[in-house]
Design brief:
heterodimer, A: mainly alpha, Serine Threonine Protein Phosphatase 5, Tetratricopeptide repeat, B: alpha/beta, 5 helices, 34% helix
């Protein structure tokens, strides 16, 4: 798909997600998942050397977090950081986006964070997802 | 300068049709709830150069105003006016909408004079009162935008139709 078409789609998707979020409608998370998917397509189409390519990479990660999909945000970040010729500033920004999200989650679930670190909780969630619920017992 | 919001989609071809219609519809409501009619005179502040223009839009049905959020009418309406003004003033075209963490609402392209530059534009609307304080606030916000060549803020007032479009460049020179 051409970048012009993707840009139009991502504009519409961001606008819809913002409107749903402003009204506190739960499906806003699905709308952000759609934004993340479109930003990822733009990131594939635009090299990291172009400013629009870097904006799309940040957008894909941020929208995944807004969709509540930390695992996807993490996978996207690892992929973008491993790209050839990725600027150091973009690597730092992507890591900062994940760190800030982790801090916000720890603040939100303060009591749980006292007993288990967010890293532990996310690692457990990843293992559940990869192995299924019975995989942990093995 | 004549600014016709009915032409917004032709000015910015990457703007989705439904989004353009919604923004223009809300601009019409924002203007008409302040008792203005299409063809109204609008005060313009373009990089501190004052002028005036004529602002037109497809008529709105004020009976539908209750279906819309009050603040969204002001904000989305301001975006329609600011994008139309940016095109008329600088021939900029929308590339895409930005997520709020990029510190701007829109990414536009400036393809004049051969080279292509990307422009971050942050927009806000004021239903009542002066624009100055909001303009400074939005300039401070868009100044944080990265990976762009130019950073601009646009503020639109609806009580007495007015629009300001400033870049952060001049502000830096003054400091």
């Amino acid at each position: 798909m051409k970048t012009d078409a993707l840009n139009s789609l991502v504009s519409g998707a961001i606008w819809r997600a913002e409107q749903l979020e402003a009204h506190g409608i739960r499906s806003a998370t699905q709308a952000w998942a759609e934004v993340s998917s479109l930003e990822e397509e733009l990131a594939k189409a635009l090299p990291v050397s172009e400013s629009e390519g870097r904006i799309a990479r940040r957008g894909a990660v941020r929208a995944a977090l807004k969709a509540g999909d930390y695992a996807r945000a993490n996978v996207l970040t690892e992929g973008y950081i491993a790209e050839e010729a990725v600027p150091r500033s973009l690597k730092a920004t992507l890591r900062k986006i994940l760190d800030e999200d982790a801090q916000a989650t720890e603040t939100r679930f303060r009591y749980a964070a006292k007993h288990h670190s967010l890293r532990e909780a996310r690692d457990l969630a990843r293992r559940f997802r990869e192995a299924g619920a019975f995989g942990l017992a093995a | 300068m004549e600014i016709d919001l009915a032409q917004l989609r032709e000015m910015h071809t990457r703007l989705p049709t439904d989004l353009a219609l919604a923004m223009v519809g809300r601009a019409a409501l924002a203007l008409e709830r302040n008792h203005h009619a299409p063809g109204v005179r609008v005060s313009l502040d373009l990089e501190r150069v004052m002028s005036s223009g004529l602002l037109s839009w497809p008529g709105a049905d004020l009976g539908e105003i209750e279906q819309h959020d009050h603040n969204r009418i002001t904000e989305d309406g301001a975006e329609a006016v600011a994008l139309a003004l940016a095109h008329r003033y600088r021939a900029w075209r929308v590339i895409r909408r930005m997520q709020r963490e990029e510190h701007a609402d829109w990414l536009l392209e400036d393809a004049r004079e051969g080279g292509r530059q990307v422009v971050a534009l942050e927009v806000s609307g004021v239903n009542r009162g002066p624009l100055v304080a909001r303009l400074w606030e939005k300039l401070a916000q868009v100044a944080k935008s990265i990976d762009v060549d130019q950073r601009w803020a646009g503020v639109v007032g609806f009580e007495e139709p007015a629009a300001a479009l400033h870049s952060t460049k001049r502000k830096k020179r003054e400091n």
